[in-house]
Amino acid sequence: MQNILRNTPNSGMSPWLFLLLIGGYVLAGLVGFQFIAPLLTVPFYDFNLMKTFEVMTNPLSDPTSKVPLLIVQGVVSAGTFILIPGWIVKRYLHISLGEFFTIERNSYLPSLVTLILVFTFMGFNSFFIYWNMNMELPESMATFESMIRSMEDQLEILTKHLTSFDSFWQFLLGFIVIAIIPGVGEELLFRGLIQNTFDKIFKNPHLAIWLAAFLFGVFHFQFYGVIPRILLGALFGYLYYFSGHLGYAMFAHFLNNGFMIVMLYIFQSGWVDYDIETMDNDPNIWASLLSGVVSVALIWTFHKHFSSRQNFSSRQNGLSKNI
User: Fold this and answer.
1) Is residue 169 exposed (0-12), middle (13-18) or buried (19+ Cβ within 10 Å)?
2) Which of 23, 238, 272, 303 is deepest in the core (most CB within 10 A)?
3) Separation of alpha carbons 66 and 166, rounded Å
4) How far, rounded to the nearest angstrom, does the alpha carbon of residue 112 sit from its chain's CA centroid?
5) Backbone angles phi, psi at 156, to 5 degrees
6) Hey, how many other C-beta atoms are within 10 angstroms of the C-beta on 134?
7) CB of 124 within 8 A of CB of 288?
């Protein structure tokens, strides 16, 4: 990766300042779109806007709240993770957003490896999902643990409410909101902007990948799910770093989220007997270890595919052209 601020009007900007600027815009987006998004839900209700805001704070009080809540989540996510980072790219870096959605042309190997890798990594990460969910804090942190457990129990209730689809159209809306928008937007923000900025600061791509992955994990505000999300973020980061194409990280993120949503829907529809949520149960350690070995081999294959090409470092596209 190269200098994110090179050849831009703000090339003298400190990367730390640029990182703070990104954070400020994202925070403003989260707050602003939280107020804007509920306005789009009014047509789904027979009562006024104030009542709509009340339902947003207590979604289970109204069984008709599922679609409006999905719309709110979609608008907030698209605005915060796609529109705002996209505006930052255009305003400060003057790079076409189209460059972020590319993958290598005329080569199916990296796409196939990415697809298989996502599923093998799920098996490996299942061990960390279980371990993180069942982590016990010291007795001295009992109050903190109780508070965190209570918050995450409420979040789990909301998540199950939003992913209990009553129709195909609800599933389709959920698929867009939970798989497509985060797959594009979160990669644009965390890998495209934040990872590249950390690399500019520390001149160490591996440190940049793990720092961005840490922020990615923490940003989801689930203490008992932060470790597997950090590992997942690192995987996306290495796919981007090794290939120079942010499209592979987006593709992997989309596959990970999309697979979960599809499996939930076909289970709820009675087409399969396997509940994907049982992945939270005690995993087979040997199966997880084998999945980890296969994942490492696939990552190495992915890396070798791109490193064997000439001018590898010059192929970094999107933001990394200016890093």
Assistant:
1) exposed
2) 238
3) 10
4) 21
5) -65, -40
6) 10
7) yes
- Which token pair is 197? 């900025």
Residue indicated by tokens 């992913």? 163
Place of tokens 């149960």: 281
Q: Identify the residue whose tokens are 């009675």.
A: 270
**Amino acid identity for residue 187 in this structure:** E
What pLDDT digit, counting tens, does each position of 42-75 carry?
Answer: 777 665 667 667 776 677 777 778 888 888 899 9
DSSP for 32-74?
A: HHHHHGGGGGGGG-SS-HHHHHHHHHSGGG-GGGHHHHHHHHH
Q: How far is CA 153 from CA 147, 149, 156, 158, 159, in A?
A: 10, 6, 5, 9, 10
Q: Specify the pTM.
A: 0.87
The kind and range of the H/E element at 200 are helix 196-202
Q: Write down the residue that tokens 């992945």 correspond to.
A: 279
Q: Which amino acid is at 221?
A: F
- Whole-angstrom Cα distance, residue 250 to residue 216? 14
